[in-house]
Design goal:
This protein is α/β, with parallel strands linked by helices. The chain has three domains: about 5-145, NAD(P)-binding Rossmann-like Domain (Rossmann fold); about 150-260 and about 285-315, no CATH class; about 315-380, RNA polymerase sigma factor, region 2, helix turn helix motif (Rna Polymerase Sigma Factor, Chain: A, Orthogonal Bundle), CATH 1.10.1740. The protein is built from 16 helices and eleven strands. It has helices spanning about 15-25, 40-50, 60-70, 80-85, 105-110, 125-140, 150-155, 180-185, 190, 200-210, 210-225, 260-270, 300-315, 315-335, 340-350, 360-380, and strands at about 5-10, 30-35, 55, 75, 95, 115-120, 145, 165-170, 230-235, 240-245, 250-255. It has a seven-stranded parallel β-sheet, with helices on both faces. A four-stranded mixed β-sheet has the order 9-8-10-11, covered by helices on one side. Helix 13 (about 300-315) packs antiparallel against helix 14 and helix 14 crosses helix 16. The protein is globular and about 55 Å long. The structure holds NADP nicotinamide-adenine-dinucleotide phosphate. The site of NADP nicotinamide-adenine-dinucleotide phosphate has 29 residues, from helix 1 and helix 10.
Length: about 375
Amino acid sequence: MVKRIAILGSTGSIGTQALEVVEKLKDKFEIIALSAGNNTNLLIEQIKKFHPMFVSVKNENDAKIIQDKFPGIYVFNGETGINKIAELPMIDMLLVAVSGKIGLKPTITAIENKKDIALANKETLVMAGDIVMKLAKENNVKIIPVDSEHSAIFQCIGDSKSVKHLIITASGGPFRNSTIEEMEHADLSETLNHPRWKMGKKITVDSATLMNKGLEVIEAHHLFNFKYDDIKVVIHPQSYVHSAVEFSDGSVIAQLGIPSMHIPIQYALTYPDRIEGIETESFDFIKASKLEFYEPDFDKFPSLKLAIEMGKKGGTYPVCMNAANEEAVFAFLEKKINYLDIYKITNDICNRYKGINNPTIEQIIEEDEKIREITRNHIKEM
Ligand SMILES: NC(=O)c1ccc[n+]([C@@H]2O[C@H](COP(=O)([O-])OP(=O)(O)OC[C@H]3O[C@@H](n4cnc5c(N)ncnc54)[C@H](OP(=O)(O)O)[C@@H]3O)[C@@H](O)[C@H]2O)c1
């Protein structure tokens, strides 16, 4: 049976790789809808190739340009646009591959409309994991992780109930071997020069500070319903072991593979089937011969510690941390602050924050907006 798919964030790193998977497996999928932010040129190419019935872009003006070019398709825009895509009755699965908080509302909309979710956007679970997972259970909706670490854990766990620890691996990013003094002078191009993965800019900066790993710990806590103390982070520079699971009898199952996002994306789209797709190269144990594992250095990478602490506090504390970090990362990308300021700002904002327990979605969105404004003002005053 052909699976009918909508992709939010089709012009991004995950979105474009998902379309490569779909192109390779043409007879398995039909693209019903695509959404982009500002990259309308790429979206136009994607429309010509995949013929979606619906598209959405960030701005009204771009929506008009696309509508004039393709009068036969429905064109939406803004946040309401991606929400309309999430509720389309004819889709079987929504791939949420937008970056940042924009992924939250359409994920909830799709779950309420009983669509299965392939989830790349980690901010959704960081901000509202309790609500999203509960809603998915109530609506009998599957949330299949796309993040390589969570896909690995998902594959290792299978249907076992006897899991003792989750082991999340991290490459360590571009500053794994740098001193704090060296990181003080880290510029944008060094920070974006990830040794293993080619990703969007926000997640690449988060991978350098290890905030990304902290977000992943929170994501794993919600996805797999696991206590924070039972989730371990291990630095594994080669990025062949994508993550692992330790069972109560002491046995450990790890998932290995070449560092390619095509594999977890394809698995999320074809789940539960495994089929030959875009990556045909076999994993070469001899070539990969060296597998190293280290403890993370919390002094050099305090963002990881902060994220786990905020995750443990729960309520809207992770919302605060995520919003402050995201605004600080944007400021770093615009060269308004230095690399080490990202953590300092995020930590300052979190220290001053008084969170809400058991928040509603409306409260989460309100807190998120409030923190973003506070962070932007804080940056202006620096
Ligand atoms: N990249 C990876 O390997 C990877 C791995 C694991 C998890 N993830 C997660 O997957 C998500 C996407 O990451 P990415 O690396 O693919 O990011 P990315 O390359 O920056 O792409 C982000 C996508 O979201 C769209 N977008 C951004 N803001 C938008 C807005 N306000 N309205 C509508 N669309 C908007 C962008 O559109 P335009 O480009 O057209 O503006 C683009 O299509 C993130 O949550 C990330 O943490 C990524």
